[in-house]
Structures are given as structure tokens and as C-alpha cells.
Specification:
Layout lengths: L3 H14 L3 H10 L2 H8 L4 H8 L5 H4 L9 H10 L1 H14 L3 E4 L6 H9 L9 E6 L8 H11 L5 E6 L9 H15 L3 E5 L9 H7 L11 E6 L6 H16 L5 E4 L5 H17 L5 E6 L4 H9 L9 H5 L1 H18 L2 E4 L6 H15 L6 H8 L9 E3 L3 E2 H8 L14 H7 L8 H5 L8 H15 L6 H10 L4 H4 L10 H15 L3 H12 L3 H22 L11 H7 L1
Helix pairs in contact: 1-4, 1-6, 2-6, 4-6, 8-9, 9-10, 11-12, 12-13, 13-16, 13-18, 13-20, 16-17, 22-23, 22-27, 23-26, 23-27, 25-26, 26-27, 27-28
């Protein structure tokens, strides 16, 4: 009953039989969420839908006396609640002290069985799901998944699939497709596809693209991808964002897993970018974020043998206290950003479990979070169709619609797109890279810089220039950076490559043709207006450098003369 052919047959038959729109409402009123979720997950969904099609099955599921809908309608109603219930449960889980657990360092089937029969039986509500990592070639991942399903039948399993360690399985696309099918047959919830450090040329991006938008087992398994928001340079982060966008553009990615790191602002900004990029493709993704369990052994390992691609601050690595404080801040940011944490450390005994509980409780109880996380709390994420402008009040679609009713206000409805507006507002959260590297605390955002350039235009624009075009150009001249990041000369990106990335970003953003035209005019630097805006761009940088120099920090006055020299 759990084969995809039988599932599709059930789905089509239920869709054809269900004719009452009131039926699913009745189901919502009478079937508890936890029961509906069980019905929706393999291996229960297909056989239970088939059972629900039988007239005699209704009493098994409904409350006594509820006879106002058919069993086919009941099945359809339960199926239709899937996305809503999963999102509801996921959102609630991200707000309470619980986490997923990556089963690190077990190595063999016996180890998985011992842990499943022992400590994992004692986790209670603390652990919401289990991840099986793929750290070496030849690991029997499906066998381990089978053990966990046998010992912990209700567990939410995610299996990692490393292309680096799966090279011997033949054609990588077909091998991955087969693996996903086998996982679905076992009742695995999701598969996380990763390239692996120094992995093959046919990496995760290429494999997803070569699947051609065809999910291996749609409806049975969620596909996840990794995203490293804490890379050390803006150029590397921009490249990573570009890779994530390509993964999401395949249309089959449903989960994004953030690599571990200690820079809370970068993690929050990365999570916000992932949500915006997914919304642009009409997707609603679940976000997960990795953290380590602070202890002396883990701290020593990160100092002496750090993992590839993992970057921690000096404060994090300096002491166990620093590690604990940074981890709690990250957990607080995850709580506010609805990012579900996963612990990427060994948890082997009751002491480890108690330490994990205390860490989660402390992190989720933090009253204050860094500035970027605070912004994230107020401005909700953007989703396909509409976006919340102020938390809990209205959507961008509602807002623009309301504006058309104001006296004397006329908005071009064909040019208004909530997702475009939402992504553009991300410039408010993107710090200027140059100031960050210069050690400026709480540096201005790209949007603040654009405002400074526009203000200078109101004061200095010569009469013979088109003031309106100048002001528009000031506002949008750095808009592409919401996708590619703030690339500076220190990043080592050639000007031609920078221009290519930014031009592609503007084409993908979905802005109006006028906005794209003004951006191209600014880049070409051929009109007087474009050259004047470039002058103002440099002038604003020089004035801001002077302002920062006048603001002393703990180390004394800053020397930002190189920014003034560049402005000349």
C-alpha cells in the first residue's frame, strides 16, 4: 500500500469521489491534529486513505454521532490538512525548547540499536526528530534508518546523502533517485542532499537541476539542502547565496539546513534570505539550524581540528563560557526567526541529555537578541502570494489594495508584487561590508547608504539634471546587493564578474522595466545623471567614514582614511 503507484491511485480516486466542500470543514472540526498528522505520514497515509474509502470505515475515525459526510470526503479532508498541520507543528516546535538530534559518531548498526533502545527512549519532548549523517563511504544508511523505524516507530527521520561518499553507486542522479525511493518506503520523512567537502564536480546543485524539476517521490519525502550563511568573506557568502537560489529554482526543495556558526547576525540574515529566495519561487520551506553542545571536548576539537567550512568567532573558541553564551544567543535568534535547531554533537548519556535540556531552556529564554534578530522579530517572513508588512496586521497585497482606495492615490496594480517588495526591504538588514571589515560596531545598512545618497541629491542636484531620475537612481543603485551581497574590491571579484552577478540579480528580482533600465544606466555611467549619482555614492561613503572616525571605540579613534581616499 506504500508504493507510489498505489498512493497515486488512492489520491486520484479520493479526489474524484469527494464532492462536498463542507466535508473537509467537518473533518477539521472532529479529527484532532495529532491523529490527522499520523494519517498523513508514511507508511500510514496510502492504506488509511484506501480504508477510509470504505463505507464501514467511518466509525473508526469519526467521533460518535458524526455521520454527515462520506468516508471519501473524510479521507480527502484529512489529506488536505497536511501542509497546514505540518507548518503549524513546525512553527510551534521552533518556539519551544526542543531540537532535532544528529546521531554523531555511532558508526555501526549495533550502536544505533543500543542508542535507540536506551537513551532515545528517554528524550520525551526534548527531541523532535533524528538525523542520520553520512560521514564515510559505504555506510549502511538505509539499514540504520530501518533500525530507528523499528525501535522508534513514531520518530521523524532525516537521512543525509553525501555525494562525496556515494560516488560508487553509479550514475549520481539515478542513484539519488533510487535512494529517495528506498527512504520513502521505510517511512523516512526527509533526505538532506549535500555535496561534502571537496566533493564531486556534479555537486548538489547540478544533481537537483538534472532531476529536471521532477521530485523522486512527491508527497512522500521532503528534500533538503545545506546553506552556509557564516562563510568568512562577502564574496564567498554571495556565491553560496547564488547556489541556494539555483537549488530553490528547481522547485523541489522543501527544507534548508543552515550550517553551524557563531555569527548571529549572519545566521539571521541567511535565514531571512532563504525565506525570501524560496518565496520568489513560490515555495514555503522549513528552516533548520545547526548548533554544537558546549563541552570541553567539543571546544578542543573546534580549536585543534575544526570541521571544513565551519567558522566560529574568537569569543566562541576562547573558553567554554564563550561557547555557551554564543550558542545561547544563536538559539535565541533561531527561536525568533522560526528556525528549528539541530544538535550536531554526540549525546550518549543522561548527563548529556540534561546538559542539552539546560542549553535549550537558556537559549529559548533569552530576553534580548542582536539587532538584526530584533528586526526579524518585527518584520515577518514573506511567503508566496502576500507578505506581512507589520507582524500580525496586514499583508503587502492588502496594503497596496487599501492604498488604491485613498483619495487621490492611484497605484499601478500591474507593477505591484508583494514578493518583490519584500525582498527589496532586505536591504535594510544587509550591513555594508566595508564598515564590518573595518571593525565598525553596528554599521549602516545598504538601505541606509542609499538614503544618504538620495538625501545628498536633494541638496546638491544641479538644475540642468533630471532630478526625478537622479533620485530614483539613488534609491535603486545598490538594489542588486539584496541578492548578491555587498561585494567590495577586497573580495577579489573582477569588475566584469561583479557586473554579471548584479545584472543577473536585477533580471531575477522581478522589478519594473523602468527600474532595470535605470540600474543599467547607472552601471553604464554614460549619462550625466548616472555620473552624478556615482559622485554622490562616493561622497556619502567619505562623509560616513568621517562620521565613524569621530566616534571613538574601545581601541581608540578609527582610521578610515582609505575610504576617504577611495571617494576622491
Amino acid at each position: 500500500a506504500a508504493t507510489s503507484l498505489q498512493w497515486r491511485s488512492c489520491e486520484l480516486f479520493v479526489s474524484g469521489c469527494c464532492s462536498s466542500p463542507q466535508a473537509s470543514t467537518t473533518v477539521d472540526e472532529h479529527v484532532p491534529d495529532h491523529i490527522a498528522l499520523k494519517l498523513l505520514q508514511p507508511p500510514f497515509a496510502a492504506p488509511l486513505v484506501a480504508v477510509a474509502l470504505q463505507p464501514w470505515a467511518l466509525p473508526l475515525f469519526a467521533e460518535p454521532g458524526v455521520q454527515s459526510y462520506s468516508s471519501a470526503a473524510f479521507a480527502m479532508g484529512v489529506m488536505g490538512r497536511g501542509t497546514e498541520l505540518e507548518n503549524k507543528v513546525g512553527s510551534e516546535a521552533s518556539r519551544r525548547p526542543c531540537c532535532r538530534l544528529e546521531l554523531m559518531g555511532l558508526g555501526d548498526t549495533a550502536g544505533y540499536r543500543r542508542l535507540a533502545r536506551g537513551l532515545l527512549q528517554q528524550t520525551g519532548d526534548l527531541v523532535s526528530g533524528l538525523n542520520v549523517p553520512n560521514k564515510k563511504p559505504g555506510e549502511p544508511l538505509l539499514e540504520w534508518a530501518q533500525v530507528l523505524r523499528e525501535e522508534l516507530p513514531g520518530s521523524d527521520l532525516c537521512i543525509h546523502y553525501s555525494l562525496k561518499h556515494q560516488r560508487s553507486r553509479g550514475d549520481p542522479v539515478e542513484a539519488f533517485r533510487r535512494f529517495c525511493t528506498e527512504c520513502a518506503a521505510l517511512g523516512v520523512h526527509s533526505v538532506l542532499l549535500v555535496t561534502g567537502p571537496r566533493g564531486p564536480a556534479r555537486d548538489a546543485v547540478k544533481i537537483l537541476e538534472q532531476l529536471g524539476g521532477q521530485h523522486p517521490v512527491p508527497g512522500w519525502l521532503r528534500l533538503g539542502v545545506a546553506f552556509n550563511a557564516c562563510l568568512p568573506t562577502e564574496a564567498e557568502r554571495a556565491q553560496e547565496r547564488e547556489r541556494l537560489v539555483r537549488k530553490l529554482q528547481t522547485g523541489i526543495v522543501e527544507e534548508v539546513w543552515l550550517n553551524t556558526g557563531s555569527d548571529t547576525e549572519l545566521l539571521v540574515a541567511g535565514a531571512a534570505f532563504a525565506r525570501r529566495a524560496a518565496a520568489n519561487e513560490g515555495l514555503s520551506v522549513k528552516l533548520f539550524g545547526s548548533v554544537l553542545l558546549p563541552n570541553e571536548g567539543q571546544l578542543k576539537q573546534m580549536n585543534e581540528r575544526p570541521w571544513n567550512g565551519v567558522h566560529f568567532s574568537e569569543r566562541y573558541l576562547s573558553s567554554l563560557k564563550g561557547m555557551e553564551e554564543c550558542t545561547q544567543e544563536v538559539l535565541g535568534a533561531f527561536r525568533d526567526g522560526e528556525v528549528h535547531p539541530i544538535i550536531e554533537s554526540k549525546v550518549r548519556n543522561r548527563d548529556d541529555l540534561n546538559a542539552l535540556g539546560a542549553l535549550l531552556k537558556a537559549g529559548f529564554a533569552l530576553d534580548s537578541t542582536p539587532p538584526v534578530a530584533a528586526v526579524s522579530r518585527t518584520r515577518r517572513r514573506w511567503s508566496s502570494g502576500a507578505a506581512t508588512v507589520v507582524a500580525g496586521t496586514s499583508s503587502a497585497g492588502d496594503f497596496t489594495q487599501d492604498a488604491t482606495q485613498l483619495p487621490g492615490v492611484k497605484i499601478r496594480q500591474d507593477a505591484v508584487d508583494a514578493n518583490v517588495l519584500g525582498e527589496a526591504l532586505g536591504l535594510k538588514e544587509l550591513p555594508r561590508t566595508g564598515w564590518v571589515r573595518a571593525g565598525v560596531q553596528a554599521p549602516e545598512s545598504v538601505a541606509a547608504h542609499s538614503w544618504g545618497v538620495a538625501f545628498l541629491a536633494t541638496q546638491l542636484c544641479p538644475d540642468h539634471l533630471d532630478r526625478g531620475r537622479v533620485l530614483e537612481m539613488c534609491v535603486i543603485h545598490d538594489l542588486a546587493e539584496v541578492r548578491v551581497g555587498d561585494i567590495t574590491p577586497d573580495d577579489g571579484v573582477p569588475p566584469e564578474e561583479k557586473r554579471r552577478r548584479e545584472t543577473e540579480a536585477m533580471a531575477m528580482l522581478g522589478v519594473t522595466e523602468r527600474t532595470r533600465s535605470l540600474f543599467q544606466e547607472y552601471e553604464a555611467q554614460e549619462s550625466q545623471e548616472a555620473r552624478f549619482v556615482k559622485f554622490l555614492d562616493r561622497l556619502d561613503m567619505a562623509l560616513q567614514a568621517d562620521r565613524y572616525e569621530r566616534t571613538s571605540n574601545a581601541e581608540g579613534p578609527r582610521n578610515l582614511s582609505k575610504f576617504k581616499s577611495a571617494a576622491k
